[in-house]
Design brief:
Elements (H helix, E strand, L loop, with lengths): L3 E2 L12 E3 L14 H10 L3 E3 L3 H16 L3 H11 L3 E2 L7 H11 L7 H13 L2 E6 L13 E7 L2 H6 L6 E4 L19 E7 L8 H11 E11 L15 H10 L3 E8 L4 H5 L4 E7 L2
The structure holds S-adenosylmethionine.
């Protein structure tokens, strides 16, 4: 895939009436291969509700996460049965890119949530110079600053068009096309002081090869920085789960040095009860 430089700009707004709800990976009761289980699994990994039901469904989902964490099977069952009628089916027969496009239009309502503001402060303080904001989505965690020049990259056109800083270079590119010997030739070797990825690890097909390529693109004192949460992802698009150990292993295999993991104290109360964690992972080029 050749990169495409996106120049169109779209305002932030909500056009579709559904919102995605992130549910816990509930351990199934029936046999894994039974048709009921397969149907149930398909249903829960792809769970969206009408916007008018979102506040109630979100509250139920938060309680579901806590019950799941406490292994309270009966409460899990009751809460899931309460949530079930709210489900709508928005994503059937869409490619991953089309699904992101759909979500990007809905997500601007989430902009500026308490966690995101804190992540923005942390990353803005860490990243100076020439920065690649990979898998940026419709938002940016890097505040405008005279000390920073940001390049935004995503494979969802809608996200780049709604990215709030149209003056930044915005590149449409599929990072999953980076395999063993592939290069992002449209960047210069060593050109970035930092590459950031927030909530993107779950969707990577070849993390080690991609991280190696980021390593090549980083200056000698450059850093690859990830912010991730093992609980949060769109399960129907996710390719892998996230754990700090897993991620560190991939980074070390991609020859990064001084890989460090820090838990960010930014989880909301219900997330903490449900065992939710936000991790900041930093890896140095040399
Ligand atoms: C969960 S969203 C996170 C967006 C943003 N970083 C944030 O935290 O709000 C994941 C983003 O990764 C992008 N993405 C997923 N797979 C990608 C790929 N193969 N290449 C480039 N971008 C990708 C999606 O389009 C989406 O914008």
């Amino acid at each position: 895939m050749e990169p495409e430089y996106v120049t169109d700009v779209k305002p932030r707004k909500s056009e579709w009436p559904e919102r995605h709800i992130n549910l816990p990976p509930i351990v199934p009761q029936p046999e894994f291969i039974s048709p009921e289980y397969v149907a149930w699994h398909k249903e829960y990994i792809n769970f969206s509700v009408h916007v008018s039901n979102f506040p109630l469904a979100k509250e139920l989902a938060e309680r579901l996460w806590v019950a799941y964490r406490e292994n309270n099977q009966e409460e899990v069952r009751v809460l899931f049965e309460k949530l079930r009628p709210f489900r709508v089916i928005p994503f059937e027969k869409r490619t991953p890119q089309e699904k992101w496009t759909h979500m990007m239009v809905q997500l601007p309502g989430d902009i500026g949530g308490p966690n995101k503001k804190k992540i923005r402060e942390i990353l803005s303080a860490k990243c100076q110079g020439h920065i690649l904001e990979a898998m940026c989505g419709f938002n940016s965690y890097l505040e405008p600053s005279p000390n920073r020049e940001v390049v935004a990259l995503d494979y969802c056109r809608e996200a780049l068009e709604r990215y709030p800083y149209p003056e930044r270079t915005r590149i449409l590119f599929d990072l999953n096309t980076i395999e063993e010997n592939q290069r992002m030739k449209f960047f210069r070797e060593g050109e970035f002081n930092a590459v950031t990825i927030c909530f993107g690890f779950h969707y990577l097909h070849h993390p080690v090869w991609l991280f190696r390529e980021f390593h090549r693109l980083l200056s000698p004192d450059g850093q690859l920085i990830l912010v991730e949460n093992p609980h949060q992802c769109y399960r129907d698009i996710a390719r892998r789960s996230f754990s700090p150990g897993h991620c560190v292993n991939f980074l070390q295999r991609a020859i990064f040095k001084n890989v460090e993991v820090e838990e960010l104290p930014i989880a909301e109360d219900w997330e903490q009860k449900a065992g939710g964690h936000y991790f900041l992972i930093t890896a140095e080029g040399s």
